[in-house]
Amino acid sequence: MALAVSGGLVVVAVASGLALTVGTAPWARSAPIAPSPSPTSVAVLPATTGSTRVVLSAVSTTSGTVAGGTSVTLEGGNLDAVATVRFGGAEGSVAVENPDQITVTAPPAAEEAEGVVPVAFFDAEGEPVRFDAVTDAAAAVTVDGAPAETVQSTLDTTTAQESVAASTDLAVPTPTPSEAATGVLASTKVVASAITFAYTPDPAVEAAKAQAALDASRLASQLDYLGTYWSDYNSAQYGVIPGNDCVNFTSQSLIARGWEMDGEWNYSLAGGYSSAWASSTAFNSYLAGHPERATPIANTERSRVKPGDIVQFDWDGSGDWDHTGVVTSVVGGTILYSSHTMNNHDQSIDAASAQRIMFWGV
Asked: What is the CATH number of domain 204-361?
């Protein structure tokens, strides 16, 4: 504190710089003077002023794959106010590490759709949570890419500056608040309660889609082959096995589907037919030994059967397989198939009255 006498005035300067008080000394002998303006206080808001604000200072990522499961870590203050989160129309999960950090997990994208969705946060009562973004980077992740409102400076120096300008004898320095004193308010931007999250392609999902498209194309080729050659044999390419061409025809359709011949299952004009290519019983044994190609399905499991699968019949229950065809349609409990020798297409499997029926899922 400094003391000075000037023209009958006692000037007391407070070192803190927060206030300046001017008064008249009782022993001063001078002419009366006009009263000085009322002293103006310059208040610096303490950090606790912002303690109830939910502050967002950092977001770890704003994108992830459509499969979901991406963790997004938010840092700031009072983030434990967040109880639930929604990515677009789907609810994610919230894990609170501490009041200054939470991690939310993105759910799978609706219908695996790519694109940007808003992310909204809610408190325990279901009310939207509004954030104060401390940095421009944090504010930039809002839905519109800009803060909704800018908080005014915590220092209101307008009145103080007017008072100082009115006095030619006194120079009152404008106090500079410390970072600790102002807390988050001086640099805070109030932003909407939603950030954005960009759903990007997931390699596994994309691979599954590509495989599904390939499988659909191959099945279409197989069914098209059956419809073309069930009565008009493709003998120029595969020959004909008189009275027993059913497995030959089935095998041809599998080639059309994309299967490749191997050492056990094959045909050539020079070498003829392997047993697995020509015999129902041998073909059954071949499929049983190659689970990578087909899966056995019992007659009691008809709900698992789909177009393109293989059906086999044992007419008399002797244990040998007497006939082979390919499923062309499954509608409710009705399964239709196509075959050679009997030369049928879209025939019900129950029309043959076989003692045993089984399927192979391919």
From this structure: 3.90.1720
- Which one is predicted more confidently, 40 or 133? 133
Residues forming a β-bridge with 13: 2, 20
pTM above 0.70, yes or no: no
Q: In what order do the strands lie in the sheet with 84-87?
A: 63-65, 194-200, 115-122, 84-87, 90-91
Q: Please name the residue that has the structure tokens 């023209």.
A: 7
Cα 61 to Cα 326: distance, rounded to the nearest angstrom = 51
Torsion angle of C-alpha atoms 173, 179, 180, 181, degrees rounded to 10: 40
Q: Measured between alpha carbons, how far is residue 344 from residues 10, 183, 247, 325, 349 in Å?
A: 119, 84, 14, 9, 11
Per-residue model confidence as pLDDT tens digits over 176-222 = 433 333 333 434 565 655 589 999 999 998 999 899 999 999 999 99
SS3 48: helix
What is the C-alpha to C-alpha distance for residues 235 and 175, in angstroms, rounded to an integer? 100
Each domain of the chain, given as residue ranges in start order, spans 1-39, 48-153+189-201, 204-361
pLDDT digits (tens, 9 = 90+) for 213-255: 999 999 999 999 999 999 999 999 999 999 999 999 999 999 9
From the list 236, 238, 278, the residue with the least C-alpha distance to 255 is: 238
Tell me how far apart the alpha carbons of residues 149 and 171 are, in angstroms, rounded to a whole number: 35
> What's the full length of the chain, in residues?
362
- Which uninterrupted H or E stretch holds 348? strand 344-348
* Cβ partners under 8 Å of residue 264, min gap 6: 274, 276, 286, 289
Give the domain 48-153+189-201 fold. Answer: Immunoglobulin-like (2.60.40)
